């Protein structure tokens, strides 16, 4: 009787493991098919001219140079705003916050923000940053909206990375005469840096591919950039945060929904392939960078 129960348990275990492998295989197959479909359709349309020239509204042969620059510039501005906020919030929740109403309230706010659809965040950004603060459709409005959208994920990443640092390292820093803040800055954060950097890079891919929140904040036009004008207050300056900036993801949506160019399908396919390549670079690069930092810190 006992042997029969053991045999049945082994059969159930094998069936469960096989089911999990099948489910994982289905997910990987769907993801791989989607990525390959986008790349196979889009890569033949990618060229140096396509990556550097301006887009065209009516004639064939337009590129994505301005949109690609806008996406990268918007990503940099968003990280400049969101990284300090997420670092501060993550450090507070991990190192200072005690169980109570304040920490519960902060965590509840983070949960609510993480559950908001990007369209809702975009409408919020339009009402607050574009209309109320009068920033207009601009890179600054888009960056602030993306900060609201991406802050919960980055905060969780920072908090989880800090919590993985063993408490004995904190105790060692305090035993050496360091203050609590000095221990966090010189012991805890360097140890948690691989996880923090990995989370930031992964968040960068999410920011780079966002469209819905930017339609209502960063705008849907990509004016030509005057590369001889580096005045940050000038609308035509490439470093101005107050100019409209149609990003690559918004450009794909616009070409598919409103495109009037004869080669709209080719432009859309090529843009989607470029966007997918960047997202893959962010994802694989994050893991390689995290592993490299972890190896470097552990060997030091």
UniProtKB/TrEMBL annotation:
Belongs to the binding-protein-dependent transport system permease family. CysTW subfamily. GO terms for biological process: phosphate ion transmembrane transport. Its main location: membrane. It is a multi-pass membrane protein. It comes from Streptococcus thermophilus (strain ATCC BAA-250 / LMG 18311). GO terms for molecular function: phosphate transmembrane transporter activity. It holds the Pfam family BPD_transp_1. Keywords: Cell membrane, Membrane, Transmembrane, Transmembrane helix, Transport. One of its GO terms (cellular component) is plasma membrane. It is found in: Cell membrane. Gene3D superfamilies: MetI-like (1.10.3720.10). The chain crosses the membrane at residues 20-40, 72-93, 105-129, 264-286. CDD domains: TM_PBP2. Residues 68-286 form the ABC transmembrane type-1 domain. This is Phosphate transport system permease protein PstA. It comes from the Bacteria.
């Amino acid at each position: 009787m006992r042997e029969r129960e053991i045999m049945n348990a082994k059969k159930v275990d094998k069936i469960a493991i096989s089911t999990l492998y099948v489910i994982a295989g289905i997910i990987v197959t769907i993801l791989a098919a989607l990525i390959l479909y986008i790349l196979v359709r889009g890569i033949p349309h990618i060229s140096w001219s396509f990556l550097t020239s301006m887009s065209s509204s009516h004639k064939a042969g337009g590129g994505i140079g301005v949109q690609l620059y806008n996406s990268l510039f918007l990503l940099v501005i968003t990280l400049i705003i969101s990284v300090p906020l997420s670092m501060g919030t993550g450090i507070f929740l991990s190192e200072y916050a005690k169980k109570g109403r304040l920490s519960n309230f902060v965590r509840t706010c983070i949960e609510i923000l993480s559950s908001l659809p990007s369209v809702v965040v975009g409408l919020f950004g339009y009402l607050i940053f574009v209309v109320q603060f009068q920033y207009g459709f601009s890179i600054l409005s888009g960056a602030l909206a993306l900060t609201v959208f991406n802050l919960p994920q980055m905060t969780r990443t920072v908090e989880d990375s800090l919590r993985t640092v063993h408490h004995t390292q904190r105790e060692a820093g305090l035993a050496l005469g360091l203050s609590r803040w000095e221990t966090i800055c010189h012991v805890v954060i360097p140890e948690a840096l691989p996880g923090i950097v990995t989370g930031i890079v992964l968040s960068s891919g999410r920011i780079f591919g966002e469209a819905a929140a930017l339609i209502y904040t960063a705008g849907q036009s990509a004016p030509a950039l005057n590369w001889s004008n580096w005045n940050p207050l000038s609308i035509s300056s490439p470093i101005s945060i107050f100019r409209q900036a149609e990003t690559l993801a918004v450009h794909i949506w616009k070409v598919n929904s409103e495109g009037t160019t004869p080669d709209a399908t080719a432009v859309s396919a090529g843009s989607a392939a470029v966007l997918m390549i960047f997202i893959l670079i962010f994802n694989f690069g994050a893991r390689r960078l995290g592993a490299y930092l972890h190896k470097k810190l552990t060997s030091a």
